[in-house]
Amino acid sequence: MKKYTILLLGSGGRESALAWKLAQSPKLEKLFIAPGNGGTMQYGTNVALSPLDFPAIKDFVIANSVNMVVVGNEDPLVAGIYDYFAADAALQNVPVVGPSKEGAMLEGSKDFAKEFMKRHSIPTAEHLSVDASTIDDGYAFIEKHQPPYVLKADGLAAGKGVLIVPDAQEAKSQLRAMLDGMFGASSSKVVLEQFLSGIECSVFVLTDGDNYKILPVAKDYKRIGEGDTGPNTGGMGAVSPVSFADECFMHKVEERIIKPTVNGLKQENITYRGFIFFGLINVGGDPFVIEYNVRMGDPETEVVMLRIDSDLLDLLEGVVTGTLADRVLNIDQRYATTVMVVSNGYPGSYAKGKVITGTEHVDGSILFHAGTSKSDDGALLTSGGRVIAVSSYGATKDEALHKSFANIEKIDFEGKTYRRDIGFDLK
Questions:
Q1: Among 298, 43, 25, which Cα is nearest to 33's?
Q2: Which of 26, 229, 5, 208 is nearest to 103 (CA)?
Q3: Contact by Cβ (8 Å): 158, 131
Q4: I need a labelling partner for 378 at 20 to 30 A (CA). Which of 88, 118, 156, 339 fits?
Q5: Separation of alpha carbons 293 and 285, rounded Å
Q6: For residue 40, which of 8, 2, 62 has the smallest C-alpha distance?
Q7: Could you read off the pLDDT of 195-212 as tens digits, one per residue?
């Protein structure tokens, strides 16, 4: 059996969950997490490396005989880490789990993703891409459609580059503001979209470029406030499975969205070996794509990993060797939930460095650290807006949520807050 020394890139709750799952594999020799956080060190060794410092990553990979790189977040993929390894004689035999730079454009450019969907007849909202020179076309699109209006920064904006505007005049004003730099270079081009009304879910696929495995479906909760109110965050919690994503719905997803996406990438000679995230909306029983991501979602990973009842590293080996079809994916039939404990003020400004206590008293839940660090004397501190994801199993959604909420009460730090209604809109 081949053994792997893995470098996992990232520092959030998603990477904590991936590290937790990888650490269970008999095929794992050693796990490094760069840069990791205050919780990932229980699964491997944290390394003070930036996921975007490719030359430093190269030196580390060679010095530590790393033979697989797993990319957690989107930035290194959009920046071309797959291509960097493939073009370097010293690295080209080290597989990277993640798409090529061109494949990563599915997330790196909303316009690219929309045009890809159009070419391959993948259902999505009607759209128009505009820049400063074509803003009048954008105004005409707004006038043609009914409110509300969806405006998306074309480039990466840390999950914050989407506006849903209820009024045509305001939509025009916000379009101008975005093109004038509201989100920096990310909104130098803006994608205007028809608004779709329905309920959302997250579908994840692992592909080796030819074959794919559909991972457990999840639903995340983006708004800071209960009842889905207030500004968007990176995600306040997640639930899996999703009641409306039944066999009939998922058959439509596979036939209309997953297969055309994987086949489309292949037809266009785009190298893609890794995770594909489909952000979907259920409109009257029919799935439409809201967005692609080219990695696992966060906080969905914190429930999806609980429900993968197979060796994740074995699946990733299948991805990088083109043998995914031969690998087994078993799904745990229990519910999994995660509730994100966040710093007061998030997603706006918030304090850091608050001492976290009580984690040792948690029982029956798994803690996936997100924004945590360790002080020199070993104290656990807050270091981000999203601090810890409290994940639990249950025979029902409510049982799993009850465990998460009960264990959150045992954790304390100044400014602790969380949503108490995760899963509220699912039966």
A1: 43
A2: 208
A3: no
A4: 339
A5: 23
A6: 8
A7: 999 999 999 999 999 999
pLDDT tens sequence across 218-231: 999 999 999 999 98
Distances (CA, A) of 111 to 15, 117, 188, 231, 385: 28, 10, 12, 24, 29
Report CA-CA distances (Å) from 233 to 58, 119, 162, 356: 33, 32, 11, 21
Query: What tokens were used for 163?
Result: 């506006």
How many of the other CB atoms lie within 10 Å of CB of 197?
8
What per-residue confidence (pLDDT) applies to 159? 67
pTM of the complete model beyond 0.85: yes
CB 348 within 8 A of CB 303: no
Within 10 Å of residue 181's Cβ, how many Cβ atoms?
11
Q: Which residue has the tokens 């800071």?
A: 224
Q: What is the mean pLDDT of the chain?
A: 96
Contact between 34 and 96 (Cβ < 8 Å)? no
Return d(Cα 328, Cα 295) in angstroms, integer.
21
Q: Under 8 Å CB-to-CB from 377, ≥6 apart: which residues?
A: none
